[in-house]
Write a structure and sequence with these properties.
alpha+beta, Immunoglobulin-like, four-stranded mixed β-sheet, 6 helices, elongated, Copper_blue_Plastocyanin, electron transport, copper, membrane, BlueCu_1
Length: about 200
């Protein structure tokens, strides 16, 4: 959309499908540039042109970089956008396609405290959302011993409850337990010694 700001003509993007408001002038433009194989984003074209190391430029998978950057612009899902951006950054720095396509490559780590700072028998936070391939680190904070046990009826089908649950307890403050999650779904879990006190939580992958 074309707008006059302090006497200057400015162009602002409209979301796809939005009609031009009455009384305004709108312009359409191509999102990318046609190449021999497919349409490439202007950003990728400029990255390719500005790559100083010609050997590296020739070895990079520009189509995969373009696909991942395109996904960061078009996807409605946070995890897809985040992972695509990390894959694109990895590919641009010369990391192999097989490596960046692994779930763990774009993975992050999220922290959960076992016991609040005031000594309450709770998980903090009691509900977190992560992306597939992310890792959760539980830290014994206060009121231990604590552990993490997943409810067999409250996890996605095909996931082993024994494999993702702790088989012991954390007794010392600062002790940690970590687990990576690769299957999407809701995971209900609890602290076995303090389940009766309501020490339950949920993880959404």
């Amino acid at each position: 959309i074309e707008v006059e700001v302090e006497g200057r003509r400015e162009l602002f993007p409209l979301l796809p499908g939005v009609k031009c408001p009455k009384g305004h002038v709108c312009h359409s433009r191509n999102v990318g540039i046609e190449t021999d194989s497919k349409q490439m984003l202007p950003l990728v074209i400029n990255m390719k042109k500005n790559q100083k190391n010609s050997a590296l430029a020739m070895s990079l998978n520009w189509e995969s970089i373009n696909e991942n950057l395109e996904e960061t612009l078009t996807s409605n899902a946070y995890c897809d956008r985040r992972n695509a951006m990390k894959r694109a950054a990895g590919l641009a720095s010369g990391v192999a396609l097989m490596t960046v396509n692994s779930a763990a490559y774009a993975g992050e780590s999220k922290s959960v405290q076992m016991g609040s700072d005031s000594g309450q028998l709770v998980f903090v936070p009691a509900k977190i959302s992560i992306c597939k391939g992310d890792t959760v680190v539980w830290t014994n904070n206060k009121g231990g011993p604590h552990n993490v046990v997943f409810d067999e009826d409250g996890i996605p089908g095909g996931v082993s409850q024994e494999k993702i649950s702790m088989d012991s307890q954390l007794g010392d403050e600062g002790d940690t337990f970590k687990m990576q999650f690769d299957t999407a779904g809701n995971y209900d879990y609890y602290c076995e010694p303090h389940r009766g006190a309501g020490m339950n939580a949920v993880l959404i992958v």
